């Protein structure tokens, strides 16, 4: 299969995504798609030189029901200090210091995920070494995972959109410590 056919298949697959939408942090988010197991989906909110802000990882609203302080009832933001790998309902710190550290081995967590991931977005503001990126794409493709490298902002946004559409998605976000 040549590259043009693959691109056409991916476009066709993405165009078949059901339209609609959901508030990922709203009350109905807990009753979301089957593959989340009733867990609230996360939202990758922002990033800064120290790490990433993730909404939906912590939910203390029930804990403070009797309290009058409305600010405590909002879904809090968790700051992840460093690079991370995000799945629809969870995220984990990831021990990479820059693009050169992103390898198939460092991404092995993606292959262990159940249900399996459909899309992996590697977010980094600097390009990954081409040989390693091609190796990652080739190996992940054999497992049915589409891999794309994007800058951090686009990787986070694309993850949020596909997560909102109940796609099995992951984002590997690299904070380059050399910047």
Q: Can you describe this structure?
A:
This protein is of the alpha/beta class. It has a single domain, classed as MTH938-like (Hypothetical Protein Mth938, Chain: A, 3-Layer(aba) Sandwich), CATH 3.40.1230. Helix content is 25%, strand content 20%. It has 4 helices and 8 strands; from the N terminus they run αβββββαβαβαβ. It has helices spanning 3-15, 108-112, 130-142, 152-164, and strands spanning 43-48, 51-55, 77-80, 84-86, 91-93, 119-123, 146-150, 169-173. A hairpin with a 2-residue loop joins strand 1 and strand 2. The longest helix has 13 residues, at 3-15.
Topology (elements, then pairings):
Blueprint: H1 3-15, E1 43-48, E2 51-55, E3 77-80, E4 84-86, E5 91-93, H2 108-112, E6 119-123, H3 130-142, E7 146-150, H4 152-164, E8 169-173
Parallel strand pairs: 6-7, 6-8
Antiparallel strand pairs: 1-2, 2-3, 4-5, 4-8
Concise structural overview:
By secondary structure, the protein is an alpha/beta fold. It has four helices and eight strands, in the order H-E-E-E-E-E-H-E-H-E-H-E.
């Amino acid at each position: 299969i040549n590259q043009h056919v693959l691109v056409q298949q991916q476009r066709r697959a993405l165009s078949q995504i059901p339209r609609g939408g959901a508030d990922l942090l709203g009350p109905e988010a807990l009753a979301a798609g089957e593959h989340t197991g009733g867990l609230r989906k996360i939202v990758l909110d922002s990033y800064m030189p120290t790490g990433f802000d993730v909404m939906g990882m912590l939910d203390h609203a029930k804990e403070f029901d009797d309290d009058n302080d409305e600010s405590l009832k909002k879904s809090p933001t968790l700051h992840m200090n460093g690079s991370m790998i995000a799945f629809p309902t969870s995220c984990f710190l990831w021990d990479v210091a820059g693009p050169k550290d992103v390898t198939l081995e460092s991404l092995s967590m993606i292959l262990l995920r159940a249900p399996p991931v459909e899309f992996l977005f590697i977010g980094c503001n600097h390009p990954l070494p081409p040989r390693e990126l091609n190796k990652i794409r080739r190996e992940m493709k054999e497992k049915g995972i589409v891999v794309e490298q994007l800058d951090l902002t686009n990787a986070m946004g694309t993850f949020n959109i596909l997560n909102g559409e109940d796609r099995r998605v992951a984002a590997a976000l690299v904070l380059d410590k050399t910047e």
